[in-house]
Write a structure and sequence with these properties.
single chain; alpha/beta; Ribosomal Protein L4, Chain: A; 6 strands
């Protein structure tokens, strides 16, 4: 399978042969949804907690006599019926994490990449070459390639200079191949990859 290869100026400079198992795979919407939901769940902290009546301080003495006061019977000011008392059935921390097998995660990633290929939403470039490591040059490069769309920029490894150029652009997210996820592929319309990142994906999942 061959895809267009673009130069940094946006022109087509040739073609690149890619692995069909990754770039022409079928997409399973149910599987993809399950993986994305699990990723969102794993990002939840789940540390909301309240104090029940045993954790609230004070309340050792009975607030008023049991009888002859004309008021209700109360045994402790820590009761949920009192202001400042404990909370009934409140949250006390929860683990939202979900485990997803590697094969399921990889299959969902390959399906989303293939879907972007079929939709014409993937751009493979020779390399990220900038005159200077400045945000304005990165912004100009991406505007030439994709316009104002949300971009997921995937590279073979983390380049600190390139990362500093891209991180201040609100419509751009930059990731190395190893951190590519179904959630990022779903949230960003255009996928921009370097040749090195394509070869690394084929080595990892081909």
């Amino acid at each position: 399978m061959k895809l267009e290869l673009r130069a940094p100026n946006g022109s087509v400079s040739g073609s690149v042969t890619v692995d069909e198992k990754i770039f022409d795979a079928g997409i399973n919407p149910v599987l993809t949804h399950q993986v994305v939901v699990s990723q969102l769940s794993n990002e939840r902290q789940g540390n909301a907690a309240t104090k029940n009546r045993s954790a609230v301080s004070g309340g050792g003495a009975k607030p008023r006599p049991q009888k002859h006061s004309g008021r209700s019977r109360q045994g402790s000011i820590r009761s949920p019926l009192w202001k400042g008392g404990g909370v009934t059935f409140g949250p006390n921390g929860r683990n939202y994490s979900q485990k997803i097998p590697k094969k399921m995660r990889r299959k969902s990633i390959c399906g989303l990449i293939s879907d972007k290929v079929r939709s014409g939403q993937i751009i493979i470039i020779e390399d990220l070459i900038l005159p200077e490591f400045k945000t304005k040059y990165m912004d100009a490069l991406l505007n030439t390639l994709v316009g104002n769309s949300r971009v997921l920029l995937v590279t073979n490894k983390v380049d600190e200079n390139i990362l500093k150029c891209a991180r201040n652009i609100p419509t751009v997210k930059m990731l190395p191949v190893q951190l590519l996820s179904p959630l990022d592929l779903s949230n960003n319309r255009i996928l921009v990859m370097t040749i090195d990142s394509v070869r690394e994906i084929e080595r990892l999942w081909g």
